[in-house]
Amino acid sequence: MFKSADNFCRQAVLYFIFIWFGVMVFAPNLLVLLASFLSRDPVWYLRLPLNLQNYVALSDPKLLSVILKSLNLAFCTTLFCLVVAYPFTYFIARFAKKYRALFLMLIIVPFWTNSLIRNYALISILSEKGILNTFLIKWGIITEPLKILYTNLAVFIGMAYTLLPFMILPLYATLEKLDNSLLEAAEDLGAGAIAAFFRIVVPVSTPGIVAGCIMVFLPALTLFYVSDILGSADSTVVGSVIRDQFMIVKDWPVGSAINIALTVFMLILLHLYYKSGNSIDQERPLW
Amino acid sequence: MEKPSVPLLELKSVTKFFGANKVLDDIDLSINDGEFLTLLGPSGCGKTTLLRLIAGFERPTTGKIVMNGKEISHLPPNRRAVNTVFQQYALFPHMTVFDNVAFGLKMKGFPKEEIETEVFQALEKVKMNMFYLRYPAELSSGQQQRVAMARAFINNPKILLLDEPLSALDYRLRQDMQIELKELQRDLGVTFVYVTHDQEEALAMSDRVAVLNEGIIEQIGTPIQIYEEPRNMFVAKFVGEINVFDGMVIKVGDNDFETIVEGMFYRLRKPSSFEIVRGSKIKVLLRPEDMVVSKVNDPEAEAPDNALRGVISFLVYKGRTIDLWIQTAGGNMVMATQFFNEDDPHIIYEINDVVNVSWIKDWEVILPDV
């Protein structure tokens, strides 16, 4: 009797997960995919016939240049977050257990404040009469205030600041599990600190690096409010374009097509990673 | 084999503290070239720390580690002619078996062709050359263990340090690996320093066993010495099963002495290790397999000289032997292992049987009662 009750629970949980995925993930994405092949309607937003016109629209040079710039920004943000987060996380993960939780808390607590508000706060730091310039001038490092706010640099700073924890947390998850005896084995076999780091630590933590990069790269393409708050007209991200297509131009099909293109792009990157054979987890290429 | 005059490795009054916690206390230990030395002890006795000191992962707080006459206490692991086989093997998960084994030679900058030859030779020795393209996760724990061995000895160490390498294996595989390890050691001619808490393993494999407890070496000697002539109660109780009787010395002769054990009168041979004093308390120790048990048909009859009367309260049949737990009249529980007697195959012991228990003369171990 208990067994069947147990079985029922398991079945119920499974069904719940299936339904959840179906309703929350699969169906919406399918709708977006469908929309990307439909035509624009000024009243109903979408109408037949099916066509590929929306994907052809992606080749618009103005749109392409925005996408390229956005990709560049996302790439720089991801790289910066990785380079900063990796050593930081590595040392936290090597700390005694009781300190680790504290450090993680210190990283997470600021993110209980809405990121919109935190990006507004960045304005007061980066603006011409902001905190940064005030101090730099006071200390005599510069004489003229730096023009950072409303440039691509400001968007980059905002993105990196907003997304850094999304790099730290997956990295921490893998680096914390890194078995210290692997490092001792490497040392025992004659590897110096640098060799051990690049030949053992980095490859073993690759799943964390990949997870972190995905978690940073995709939002860095789409977090339009960061570029809205801190950027100029020149620093539009793909996310802004998609939003504009939906909210302002009201061209849902093209917005959907851009979105699908992004998803496909990410899938291709992931596929290349798994195919490269660098993955040590049991996951295999999806195709 | 002639023993070299200078030991391969010497630990000279080595003490190790972790914070205020003294883990090793004034350890003196010599390791001879080519021997299989086992550090045996319960968890927390300092055996792993001792191994890590030799490996170079820890530095002694005081004292010296000398190899071939040269002090190596402060050299890092890669500048000592020792390699370690780790407890959980610590194979690099992202590398194939080949790359794992090749790692040490690669770090030393060996040419590619030479690495290839050496790696396959090493894998051959542990019968793993078929698996060179596998990843550690694709191997059984026994296979991982072999790869870990090959990865260590390919570097031609003077001493191979093994930290409980068989503890992750199941009982049967462990037995097979014990023999394989011993053969490998003979084949390589390398000194093995082996850490274990399993006394059976220690006795089966070692040339010498050092029994550690709370940071000191309680006894060091051949497996036979450790098992048959334990120097103190700790060694006696930790290595194998043993029966302990309290005795009181009543008369001391030239070569023997008289004592009362369990209310019975015994004349025993004087031990060489300490002075027997009249009126002092002693411990009489006996291995279960040295006990002699005979069934009593008439419980009313007196027990013969040198025998204790008892009742079987528990027994375990083990195929070749039978283990009996006998409650003596004096209230002690005595364990006796009986081999089946070919001359008398019909002896059947049962619970509540009344028996006489004695032991093979002179096989007892006498220790002072402290």
SSE blueprint:
The complex is a heterodimer of chains A (287) and B (370).
Chain A: H1 2-36, E1 39-41, E2 45-47, H2 53-56, H3 61-94, H4 97-108, H5 115-126, H6 131-138, H7 152-177, H8 180-188, H9 193-204, H10 206-222, H11 224-230, H12 238-247, H13 252-275
Antiparallel strand pairs in A: 1-2
Helix pairs in contact in A: 1-13, 3-7, 3-10, 5-11, 7-10, 7-11, 8-9, 11-12, 12-13
Chain B: E1 9-18, E2 21-31, E3 36-40, H1 47-55, E4 62-67, E5 70-71, E6 82-85, H2 97-107, H3 112-125, H4 141-153, E7 159-163, H5 171-188, E8 191-196, H6 199-205, E9 208-213, E10 216-221, H7 223-228, H8 233-238, E11 243-252, E12 256-261, E13 264-269, E14 281-286, E15 291-295, E16 308-317, E17 321-328, E18 333-339, E19 354-359, E20 365-368
Parallel strand pairs in B: 3-8, 3-9, 6-7, 7-8
Antiparallel strand pairs in B: 1-2, 1-4, 4-5, 9-10, 11-12, 11-14, 12-13, 14-20, 15-19, 16-17, 16-19, 17-18
Helix pairs in contact in B: 2-3, 2-4, 3-4
In the CATH hierarchy, the third-tier topology of the largest domain in chain B is known as Rossmann fold
| Number of individual domains of chain B | 2
Structural shape of chain B: elongated
> What is the straight-line distance between the termini of chain B?
40 Å
Order of the strands making up the biggest sheet of chain B? 6-7-8-3-9-10
CATH class bucket of chain A: Mainly Alpha
**Strand segment count of chain A:** 2
CATH architecture of chain A: Orthogonal Bundle
Category from helices, strands and their pairing of chain B: alpha+beta
Strand content of chain B: 25-35%
Question: Spans of chain B with pLDDT under 50 lasting ≥5 residues?
Answer: none
CATH level 1 name of the largest domain in chain B: Alpha Beta
Quick one: CATH superfamily of chain A? MetI-like
Instruction: Work out the oligomeric state of the chains in this entry.
Output: heterodimer
Distance between the termini of chain A: 43 Å
User: How many individual helices of chain B?
Assistant: 8
Helix content of chain B: 10-25%
**Secondary-structure element pattern of chain B, one letter each:** EEEHEEEHHHEHEHEEHHEEEEEEEEEE
